[in-house]
Amino acid sequence: MKQQQSYSNRLVFSLGGSVFYEKGKGINHEFIQLFLNFIKSLQNIKGAIVVGGGGLAREFIEEGRRLGLTEYENDMLAIWETRKNATLILYSLKDLLVYPKLLYNAEEASIAINQYDWLCSGGFFPGITTDAVAALIAESIRASKIINISNTAYLYDKNPNIHQDAKLIKTTTIDEFIKIANNFDERRAGENFVFDIFALKIAKRSRIPIYFTNANIENIVKIIQDQDHQGSILLP
User: Over the stretch 163-186, which tens digit does the pLDDT of each residue have?
Assistant: First the structure.
């Protein structure tokens, strides 16, 4: 009888643009260096790193709107920024067994993961965020977890920077969180989603849990080791 292969060592890291690029400060070299060293230290783990666009992408979108660009064109501006960010990560991991070019679709990921340890990606196409890209890649490579890293450790039922009554979410189901996310998803270029609904549904159908934390390497390590961590969990 053919033994079933385990994919528990496959992970997808989704780096929010907010930890990659800080508005007013520029590229967050300190975190990027720590994260790269962390990836290089991992043993018997492989997967993908998806990078968002951050404040710089939104600056381009804002200027695009002032110049009368369509939402499609504004999305493309953001996608190119995510790809530039992801290329920096890709080039910095050249000493590892890393797929030598950015992913442009999830099918490519499902093939490349069989020959390489690490894959890198920015955005795929207009209309979806890098959250959704991370979910599609996770599904295609059969990842056991999606680890979303942003400038805040936890999810909330609404934006805590605007609403004082925002409630922190520690653990809930993807189904329950879809009800919350649906209230904030207008699908506009550069929108600050709570989390992309498309990504949530992809993760749900393939039963991939999504872990959320901040730019703290210790928390990321705890997630990988299935320990309590500072952050939220969405269960399929």
Answer: 788 889 999 999 999 988 876 665
Rounded CA-CA distance 147/228 in Å is 14
d(CA 65, CA 92) in angstroms, rounded, equals: 33
CB–CB of 10/144 below 8 Å?
Answer: yes
pLDDT tens digits, 208-233: 999 999 999 999 999 999 999 999 99
Q: Residue 215: phi, psi to the nearest 5?
A: -80, 60
Which residue from 120, 130, 138, 122 is spatially nearest to 49, judged by alpha carbons? 120
**Token pair for residue 137?**
């890649």
Residue 147 near residue 12 (C-beta atoms within 8 A): yes
218 vs 226: CA distance, rounded Å: 12
CA triple 81-84-86, angle to 5 deg: 110
27 by DSSP, 3-state: which?
strand
Neighbours of 134 (CB within 10 A): 30
Q: Could you give the CA distance from residue 176 to residue 106 in angstroms, rounded to a whole number?
A: 26
Strands 145-149 and 10-15 come out as parallel
Identify the structural domains of the chain with CATH numbers, from first to last.
10-235 (3.40.1160.10)
H helical segments located in 29-148: 29-41, 54-66, 71-92, 106-112, 130-141
200 close to 174: Cβ distance less than 8 angstroms: yes
Both tokens assigned to 217: 């390497």
Chain center to CA of 197:
13
Neighbours of 198 (CB within 10 A): 20
